[in-house]
């Protein structure tokens, strides 16, 4: 059965990015982590002449509560990549050797060890989940998949001598995106709602530009063991302060009002390279965003979900 992580790209493709990523908020509340495993333009070696555009890259970003995010990025030549074949399962992505620069991600685990600009980080994570979803699928043009939407993480992370560990360590998601090019604009968010003795709920939402002036919009709620799909989204947003509000009604009559707030010290702005190697564009991400959701069932019963730091909000354009 497909897991949504299977590789789409081949080693010979000259223009395409494919990325597997993890976002987890720490259970003890001190911050959040973002790990990113990137394959880009393998058939042309990334973008020739740009030392920050290797065909294989591993990113690690720390989002401390109340502090400035910190990113470490390591590039690898294609010869140091061991990756499963297109469409094969189980999936794996391994970069570097088994020593100081060994990194990898597979179906339910990821690891890494980097030394960049005088900083050292190592992580060894395992995760499990009960829900997965394909947010968008446009064939060779691209897709956005979430193989683990309500992920519970265990393991350890070490940054410059500081150790984070736990069972559980944190909560979040593992995603998988791919495309011929990045969209000119997009807004994406995911929220993980802990609910005490009840099972956690998650909400993921995505909007991006399409040809002929159209906009793709979709949100998926996982709540009480059931999926609710929202397609006709009404949205308002502020890209400067990272604010996004959504309203919609699912086919089963469930009404949704959601607000994501990503402003503050946790906003991280990084340049992403275009797949045609013509330049970069800026991506704003806050993996310590807050989220508030109000649900109203067809029979009028209202439920409120909230998290102060358990959401991620990303905006481009």
Summarize the structure in words.
By secondary structure, the protein is mainly beta. It has one domain (17-316). It has no helices and 22 strands. The strands form two sheets. Strands 1, 2, 3, 4, 5, 6, 7, 8, 9, 10, 11 and 12 form a twelve-stranded antiparallel sheet that branches. It is globular, with a radius of gyration of 19 Å. 42% of the residues are buried.
The gross shape turns out to be: globular
Task: Name the poorly predicted regions.
Answer: none
> What is the radius of gyration?
19 Å
Largest sheet: 12 strands, antiparallel
Classification by helices and strands = mainly beta
- Helicity level, as a percent range? under 10%
What is the H/E order?
Answer: EEEEEEEEEEEEEEEEEEEEEE
Query: How many domains is the backbone divided into?
Result: 1
Instruction: Give the N-to-C terminal Cα separation.
Output: 36 Å
SSE layout:
Elements: E1 17-26, E2 31-40, E3 56-64, E4 70-76, E5 81-83, E6 92-95, E7 103-106, E8 109-116, E9 119-128, E10 133-137, E11 142-159, E12 162-179, E13 186-195, E14 198-209, E15 215-223, E16 226-230, E17 234-238, E18 243-249, E19 255-261, E20 268-273, E21 280-296, E22 302-316
Antiparallel strand pairs: 1-2, 1-12, 2-3, 3-4, 5-6, 6-7, 7-8, 8-9, 9-11, 10-11, 11-12, 13-14, 13-22, 14-15, 15-16, 17-18, 18-19, 19-21, 20-21, 21-22
Q: What key phrases describe this protein's structure?
A:
mainly beta; twelve-stranded antiparallel beta sheet; ten-stranded antiparallel beta sheet; 0% helix; globular
Write a compact overview of the structure shown:
The protein is mostly beta strands and 317 residues long. The protein has strands at 17-26, 31-40, 56-64, 70-76, 81-83, 92-95, 103-106, 109-116, 119-128, 133-137, 142-159, 162-179, 186-195, 198-209, 215-223, 226-230, 234-238, 243-249, 255-261, 268-273, 280-296, 302-316.
């Amino acid at each position: 059965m497909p897991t949504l992580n299977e590789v789409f790209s081949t080693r010979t493709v000259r223009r395409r990015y494919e990325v597997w990523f993890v976002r987890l908020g720490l259970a003890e509340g001190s911050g959040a982590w973002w790990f990113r495993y990137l394959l880009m333009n393998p058939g042309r070696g990334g973008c020739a002449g740009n030392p920050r555009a290797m065909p294989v890259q591993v990113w690690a970003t720390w989002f401390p509560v109340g502090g400035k995010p910190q990113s470490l990025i390591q590039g690898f030549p294609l010869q140091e990549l061991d990756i499963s074949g297109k469409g094969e399962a189980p999936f794996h992505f391994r970069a570097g050797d088994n020593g100081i620069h060994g990194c990898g991600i597979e179906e339910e685990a990821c690891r890494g060890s980097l030394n960049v600009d005088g900083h050292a980080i190592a992580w060894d994570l395992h995760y499990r989940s009960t829900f997965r979803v394909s947010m968008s699928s446009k064939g060779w043009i691209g897709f956005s998949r979430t193989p683990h939407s309500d992920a519970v993480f265990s393991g350890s992370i070490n940054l410059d001598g500081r150790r984070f560990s736990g069972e559980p360590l944190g909560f979040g998601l593992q995603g998988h995106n791919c495309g011929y090019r990045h969209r000119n604009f997009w807004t994406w968010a995911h929220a993980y709602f802990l609910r005490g003795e009840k099972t956690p709920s998650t909400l993921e939402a995505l909007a991006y530009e399409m040809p002929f002036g159209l906009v793709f919009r979709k949100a998926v709620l996982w709540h009480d063991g059931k999926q609710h799909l929202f397609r006709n989204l009404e949205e308002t947003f502020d890209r400067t302060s990272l604010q996004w509000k959504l309203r919609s009604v699912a086919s089963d009559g469930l009404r949704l009002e959601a607000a994501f707030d990503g402003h503050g010290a946790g906003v991280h702005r990084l340049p992403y390279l275009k797949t045609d190697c013509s330049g970069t564009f800026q991506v704003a991400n806050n993996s310590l965003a807050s989220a508030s959701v109000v649900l109203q069932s067809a029979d009028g019963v209202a439920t409120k979900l909230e998290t102060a730091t358990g959401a991620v909000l990303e905006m481009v354009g």
